[in-house]
Specification:
Blueprint lengths: L2 H13 L2 H8 L3 H15 L4 E4 L2 E4 L1 H27 L4 E9 H18 L2 E9 L1 H9 L5 E4 L8 E16 L18 E5 L4 H12 L8 E6 L2 H9 L5 E4 L4 H6 L2 E4 L6 E10 L6 H16 L1
Parallel strand pairs: 3-4, 3-5, 7-8
Antiparallel strand pairs: 1-2, 5-11, 6-9, 6-10, 6-11
Keywords: DNA-binding, Transcription, Transcription regulation
Family: Belongs to the LysR transcriptional regulatory family.
GO molecular function: DNA-binding transcription factor activity; transcription cis-regulatory region binding
């Protein structure tokens, strides 16, 4: 079976579009359509229903997609193994990171890793914790870094770095740290991260333990990224709970001020997450060991 056809099939399946798949693969749309038609002829069934510009996988397409992804992953794993056997430190490494570890921890870590494996090509997806976990489960990435554990028996979660969450507010906000209490939080304009965010999961757990349900908070906005929340705080929309890593520049610049909960920091772990009973590729295993060693020594 032609791996190029498998790869194009997966692109069409994921993008639900022949034209977008063609753009990503640097091919013409008729070429992609021809490859898919050839694959359908080989399998003896339609893989997609086409209605104008709408592309919908058939039931056969849904089934075939799972196996196509496995075959492509196996091909990549085989190439990496052979390269290592021949003494080449060359191959692909597919990682993912939720917002904070993906933007503030992984870049530095990957820079050091690349100095040891300069010919390893790294693919890094950034999303929220839930999406990164889904990427690991469906095989799109081998290892993820997330800000909260999710109940999923197929996955292993290994702590590898610490983080601190703080209540952040505009620097000119009338409330002073001395006046703050958890009970007063319910009366303040609060900015929430989206469902699936690791920061939100940890925050909800922390507040629930202290008898505060987020439904009782005065929610003025629900935003889909740390950057959006940070800018909303600076512009006086409200306050929020954020990783201290994400606002260090703003703290130094005097744009944001923070208060601690219960007069002490709210700590959490970041986790490396991967399929527990699946053998990692050589480079993924090397990165896992490297990440644990480097973060433990810092």
């Amino acid at each position: 079976m032609d791996f190029k056809k498998l790869s194009l099939f997966c692109k069409v399946f994921e993008l639900r579009s022949f034209s977008k798949a063609a753009q990503q693969a640097y091919l013409t749309q008729p070429s992609v359509s021809g490859y898919i038609a050839s694959l359908e002829n080989l399998l003896g069934t339609r893989l997609f229903d086409r209605q104008g510009r709408e592309v919908t996988p058939t039931q056969a397409g849904e089934i075939f997609y799972k196996y196509a992804k496995r075959l492509l992953a196996l091909k990549e794993e085989a190439e990496n193994e052979v390269n290592l056997f021949l003494g080449y430190k060359k191959g692909n490494l597919k990682l993912g990171g939720s917002t904070i570890p993906g933007q503030y921890i992984l870049p530095k870590l990957l820079g050091k890793f690349k100095s040891i494996y300069p010919d390893v090509k790294i693919f890094l997806k950034i999303s929220d914790t839930k999406q990164i976990v889904d990427f690991v489960l469906n095989g799109e990435i081998e290892i993820g870094t997330v800000g909260a554990k999710v109940s999923e028996p197929k996955l292993a979660f290994v702590p590898f770095a610490k983080d601190e969450l703080v209540l952040a507010m505009p620097s000119d906000y009338a409330l002073s740290p001395k006046e703050f209490s958890l009970t007063s939080l319910q009366n303040l304009p609060f900015i929430l991260r989206e469902q699936g965010s690791g920061t939100r999961m940890v925050m909800e757990h922390f507040l629930n333990q202290r008898g505060i349900n987020i439904d009782k908070l005065n929610i003025v906005a629900e935003l889909g990224s740390t950057e959006a929340v940070r800018q909303a705080i600076i512009n006086g929309i409200g306050i929020s709970i954020l990783s201290k890593r994400a606002i260090e520049i703003e703290l130094k610049a005097g744009l944001i001020k923070i208060v601690y909960f219960d007069k002490k920091p709210l700590k959490r772990d970041f986790y490396l997450v991967y399929l527990e009973h699946k053998t990692l590729s050589p480079f993924a295993q090397a990165f896992l060991e490297f990440a644990l060693e480097k973060t433990e020594s810092e």
